[in-house]
Amino acid sequence: MSGCPFGGQPPVDSPTGSAAAPDTPSDGGMPSSGGGTRRLSRRGLLGLAGVGGAGAVAGIATGLLGHDALATAAAPPADNGSVIPFFGDRQAGITTAAQDRLHMAAFDVTTEDRAALIQLLKDWTAAADAMTAGRTTGATGAVDGPYDAPPEDTGEALDLDAGRLTLTFGFGASLFEKDGKARFGLAGRRPDALIDLPHFPGDALEPNRTGGDIVVQACADDPQVAVHAIRNLARIGFGKARVRWSQLGFGRTSSTSRAQQTPRNLFGFKDGTNNLKAEDAALLDGHVWAGAGTRAGEAWMAGGSYLVARRIRMHIEIWDRTSLREQEGLIGRTKGEGAPLSGGKEFTAPDFAVKGNDGEPLIGMDSHLRLAHADQNEGVRMLRRGYNYTDGSDGLGHLDAGLFLIAFVKDPRTHYVPMQMTMAKQDVLALEYLKHTGSGLFAVPPGTRQGGFIGEGLFA
Question: Would you call the peptide bond into 10 cis, given omega within 30 degrees of 0 as the criterion?
């Protein structure tokens, strides 16, 4: 399918920068104050006995290490290619080769204190750096803290590697102003491109699946790693932010590198054939990476992007009773090869002028491929990182399943809204087989430097 709101196009380069090395406490040393493994060996306990006596040892053993003074947390798995550094010029998780699993969450910030929000972003930065490197969060992690206090990491990823985890952060319009009032001293800092998306024809948006102050996209090759990441960010945010909505995705519906095969969506068709790829540097500059804007207040977005999230429910049961001929006609491609109906192979450019024996275009005027293709949309393209999802049933025997669209664009006013409006009005696939139930638009700032924090430029 081509690059569009439901099946389409985008790109790529993982952020540069190196991950901080995990703390390596020396044998018998005191617990680390950093984000690495916290341990105290038998030799350390004996050394402390010589200094402070058995009482000191007992106090540390019980209060610090918990029920087993001699047990130590397992060291983080060695990097086997599973680590994608968090710090870099651009955020990871945009042009990074698309991982297999998704856990995305939007948060509402509950505090109104600017300093508290900045501290939250700093705490999330430290946690993101640790988790993307395969380490636990906090100074004491999941098992090395006081026995009578909650652990600083939930622990379900202890025995797993980093799983190519990426964490991508974005800011919604409601972070800047709410109910007509500026928030957090950010008056004049909301980028012009961070619009309120219009109500598209056919939208059936649910408030509890729409909007949010801050979004976090966690992608990984292991679902437990992705879930662990969002869970711990939510735990760290307690009292300052709460989850507004979240979405799990189990199968990518686009490729962001030419080394990846084109995946299939739940309609059984290849999805994202014309997606931008990491190798397309010039196209990324033209369609994905945002500029500095026209006002001084939006210069912090230079080098970032805009994330469009749309939860698109598919009417699976109706589709499954549709003939193959009609399915291919609605999409504009063959189901097996993924080739355009005008002929060729999957990556053959479609020829919209070719007609059949009946004189009608082989690629229908209301087909998804035609309406979504860049040639029909003034050359506009986007980078897609969508996922399939299944959220049980609706209680009426119908699957609540479909596509969770994620697209990164240079400016949603030019690179998303016009195409989606056209498709919502003319695309038979969208009109009869799809329903948009959730939506969000977020400004994704450029990457974070070592020693800095997420979105630091916004608060400068």
Answer: yes
